[in-house]
């Protein structure tokens, strides 16, 4: 097994000549560099000053480093979204959605569920470079966390769906993912009416089970996932001791020298914007054109949605292709300005050749500053969640075959 991890099955090891892969490996290697010594007195004075600045209301915080044309929302603590008018969130609907989320009856094989890729113990992600679908088929992209997903306006890495209900429908019915048939799913749930009828009645007013209600309950459950209990949120709530000195310095770097707020902003530290980070593998085996496949616009080649940074330290590996096993490597590559692939012979006039986003620039942070920035990101970790009992009726061995 260890040989597999170190061999050709790694994404960047399969394409050793790729600039993106080389940059990722170099960033991870440099992450082991020793931190430079910093003057303790100067560091203490800087920290004390920043604590005084950031103990104030956010509107009085130091001005952030925001590029012209970027409309930003200040960092804040999120609330649970109410849901759309045609599917308002309710505790009863979320409870039903919890059972459905873990129930393998929604998949064609009855071997996987939504929770197979979005495990609460793994930050509502799966800890893999690539998602695994029907019959453990390896998919093309990394599984993003669902934490705070109800605050998003678009879904999937390429933003191809605009509602959580449509997102759930696509995942369940996609033959490469859950491969579920809506009629078959409903029939299976109806056979478990003793368990499900009371839940559907509490959620929708009667015991009728149909596929629309299934995806509505799943969406309501996802919108109900609690977020906003991190050390950073406690700091925002008036508990300054919740952030370490390094995390306070990291918060300031996040908003200023790190330029992170250009993309990761608001209560979920994300934005429904799409950016090319130079990791497209254009013209090579692992090519992924991202948003372009949705819009058909040349400028969208290689653009992917900006994900939340909530729980970011617990939801690696990172990026849409799971390329980075180390958060240190991610930070160091951002510090370098991210890869900027150059056209090869014959690609010079290719209108689809991807361009790394102009918002990405070398940051010139030293190792101590990168460590502080990482400390702030770690302060965005939410309390870990466990499901202590099976929330759906057991499947008989003859049903699961």
Keywords for this entry:
single chain; 401 residues; mainly alpha; 14 helices; 34% helix; disordered N terminus
What's the arrangement of secondary structure elements?
Elements: H1 2-6, H2 19-30, H3 40-54, H4 91-102, H5 114-117, H6 164-173, H7 182-191, H8 193-204, H9 211-223, H10 231-236, H11 245-255, E1 271-276, H12 292-295, E2 303-306, H13 327-335, H14 367-378
Antiparallel strand pairs: 1-2
Helix pairs in contact: 2-13, 3-11, 4-8, 4-9, 6-9, 11-14, 13-14
Radius of gyration: 22 Å
Q: Could you describe the largest sheet, including whether it forms a barrel?
A: 2 strands, antiparallel
Query: What proportion strand?
Result: under 5%
Mean pLDDT: 90
The arrangement of helices and strands along the chain is: HHHHHHHHHHHEHEHH
Assign the structural class, choosing from mainly alpha, mainly beta, alpha/beta, alpha+beta, or little secondary structure: mainly alpha
Helical residue percent? 25-40%
Termini Cα gap: 28 Å
Number of strands: 2
Number of DSSP helical runs? 14
Give the spatial strand order of the biggest sheet.
Answer: 1-2
What general outline do the C-alpha atoms trace? globular
Could you name the ranges where pLDDT drops below 50 across 5 or more consecutive residues? Answer: 1-18
């Amino acid at each position: 097994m260890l040989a597999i991890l170190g061999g050709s099955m790694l994404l960047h090891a399969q394409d050793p000549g790729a600039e993106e892969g080389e940059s990722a490996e170099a960033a991870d290697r440099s992450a082991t560099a020793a931190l430079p010594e910093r003057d303790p007195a100067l560091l203490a004075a800087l920290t004390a000053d920043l604590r005084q600045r950031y103990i104030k209301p956010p509107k009085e915080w130091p001005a952030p480093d925001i590029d012209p044309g970027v409309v930003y929302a200040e960092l804040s603590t999120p609330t649970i979204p109410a849901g759309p008018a045609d599917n308002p969130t309710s505790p009863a609907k979320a409870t039903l959605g919890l059972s459905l989320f873990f129930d393998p009856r929604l998949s064609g094989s009855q071997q996987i569920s939504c929770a197979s890729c979005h495990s609460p113990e793994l930050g509502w992600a799966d800890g893999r470079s690539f998602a695994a679908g029907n019959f453990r088929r390896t998919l093309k992209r990394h599984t993003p966390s669902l934490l705070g997903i109800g605050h998003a306006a678009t879904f999937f890495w390429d933003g191809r769906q605009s509602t959580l209900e449509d997102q759930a429908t696509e995942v369940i019915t996609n033959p490469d993912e859950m491969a579920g048939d809506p009629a078959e799913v409903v029939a299976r749930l109806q056979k478990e009416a003793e368990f499900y009828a009371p839940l559907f009645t509490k959620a929708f007013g009667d015991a009728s089970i149909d596929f629309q209600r299934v995806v509505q309950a799943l969406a309501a459950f996802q919108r109900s996932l609690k977020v906003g209990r991190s050390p950073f949120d406690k700091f925002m709530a008036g508990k300054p001791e919740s952030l370490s000195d390094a995390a306070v310095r990291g918060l300031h770097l996040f908003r200023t020298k790190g330029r992170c707020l250009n993309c990761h902003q608001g209560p979920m530290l994300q934005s429904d914007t799409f950016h090319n980070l130079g990791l497209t593998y254009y013209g090579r085996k692992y090519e992924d054109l991202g948003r372009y496949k949705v819009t058909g616009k040349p400028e969208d080649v290689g653009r992917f949605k900006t994900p939340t940074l909530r729980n970011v330290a617990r939801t690696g590996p990172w990026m849409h292709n799971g390329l980075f096993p180390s958060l240190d490597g991610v930070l160091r590559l951002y510090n370098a300005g991210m890869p900027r692939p150059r056209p090869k012979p014959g690609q010079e006039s290719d209108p689809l050749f991807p361009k790394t986003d102009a918002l990405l620039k070398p940051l010139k942070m030293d190792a101590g500053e990168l460590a502080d920035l990482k400390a702030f990101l770690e302060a965005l970790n939410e309390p870990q969640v466990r499901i202590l009992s099976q929330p759906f009726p057991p499947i008989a061995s003859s049903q699961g075959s």
